[in-house]
Structure formats: C-alpha cells, structure tokens
Design goal:
By secondary structure, the protein is an alpha+beta fold. Helices cover about 40% and strands about 15% of the residues.
Amino acid sequence: LVLLSQLVGVPVTDFKRRSLDAAYKAYYASGVNSARLDAYAQLLTRLAQGTALGPESTHHLLELMARTATGQNRIKAGLELGTHFAHKTGTQRRQVCDAGLLWGAQPVAVPTAVVVACARGEMSLARSESALRDVGNAICRSGLLNHGVTNAPSCDIAPRVERQPAATPFS
C-alpha cells in the first residue's frame, strides 16, 4: 500500500481498503471487468458461428486472437504443436484465465472446441499457469483435436520450442 500511495500520490490513510486483498475482493464483488465463464463461452461460440459480429469484424478479431502473445505457459502449453488456438488471456490478483477457440492441426471452417478456464485463489502465477496448461493437455489427451487418438505421444507437455504459427483457419 505504501508503494501504491507513492505512485498515485494519495496518502495510505485515504485508502478505503486496508490491504490489497481487501481492495481486490471489493473490486471483484463489484462485477466490473468480469463475466461468468459460461457466458464467455457463449460469446466465443457466437463469434465462431459468425453471429456475434459481421464477417470482416469476425475475421479481424479471430486474427488478433490467433496472434495473442500472452499465455504461452497456459492452455497453449498443454496442446499438441500445430494446434490452432485463437484466445484471450486475463490476469488479475489471484485470478488467471485463458479462453478461446481450438482447431486441430488440420483446421476446418468451424472450431473443434470452445475452451474457457480460470485458476482462482492462487497467489503463484506459475502454479496457476501450470493448472491451465494441464487443461490444455487434458484436451490434447482426450483425442478431440487429433482424430480420436487418446493419450497421443505428441501431447507430451515437456518444455518445447514453439514454431512459427501456421496459417490460421480463417485466413
């Protein structure tokens, strides 16, 4: 709080909350900058179906989401190389999310899956990201993205070097 006080030029005694945890708890309770996960999944589904935006805007947004540079240690880290993932990440105090549309290595016109996942309550960003990576790995191992092959060796989650992204399915 002292550092925040110095940064914003407001005395600590003027703060309404006495800790960062209390401030974030009040912020989260306000509902600002938040949505239910099922509502976010519905929004992504509508985007994938082309009913959320017009064709040009849909294409533009999916291209932006496909180029998302954040979240390399989240869901994407558990997926098979070559999987297309147009996604959006979110990171706040004790709340880390990743959500998007998944296509297998041989993409089709519509995404294979919509995924929305968050880790909440954990102070460690690394542990939260690891939990999200495990979500990606569970999807990979399910066979959903690789023609029904379950537990494929290509789903190993050992550290790997990401290749240049392939052309997106909506290019």
